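Write out this protein's structure.
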Amino acid sequence: MATIDSFTPGTAIEGIYGVRRADRRLSRKGRPFLDVTLGDATGAIRGVVLDQPDFFAERFSVGDTVRVTGRVSERGGKAELLIDHISATTDIDEAPVDLLPRSHRDPDELFGFVLHLADEIADPGLRALMESFTSDEVLVEAWKQVPCTRGGHHSYRGGLIEHTVGVAALCQTLCQWHPRLDVDLLLAAALVHDIGHARAFRVGATFELTDEGRALGHLTLGDAMIGDRAAGCGLDRSRALAVRHAVAWHHGAPPGQSPSSASPEALALLRANALEAGVKGRLEGSGPTD
């Protein structure tokens, strides 16, 4: 099967890909066509269905694994796929998630770093909070699989756990330079700052938002997860509030909050998150979103 990174204009292809986007559009002459984005582990490509678009639109949905035949062309200096046939299929050897890009780092190894960093926390209440996250097998599996974004930084399998470790490591280093920072608080907040993504994303042939991810977003989901688990493990209310405060600030001042109201730990997390995401986004050629 031809991988997307091997597509060259003028070649015919037949393969299995994931549908990341699909829209019915009209040409300048008013003719309908399907505008789709197909992806595999090596990349993504725009494809168009010009012949019988309404017929083929009924044969697949966004998120499906599809069998495609067509020809690679070029438009505006970019490869584009002229699709002759496209339909959903389950006749594949690999799992649908194998059509997604993934981190070059081993997610299990990265989770080992999470466990190591969590073990550095001395505060008994915060250690209990972290254990409530790291001992949840269902949550951990999602934590190791989902991305941080669908089109920005760390937009691949294992992206969330990779970003988590990067931000926590930066925060740990910052505490060595500024010893008056509450290292236990900052490290705990860094490790769970994006945990809401574990419930906001669903991983299949594509990365899709769950219903609660679409309705609430990862910040709200993460805050609820931290609050629930803090209450369940008996973490002191003031400490739980301090963690939630820092996490709530990691993209900037929450609505109605003055920039001067951020705790030093919240400000540290904000800057570490922006640094890690921004550098990674630039390396990947994307923006530092989310």
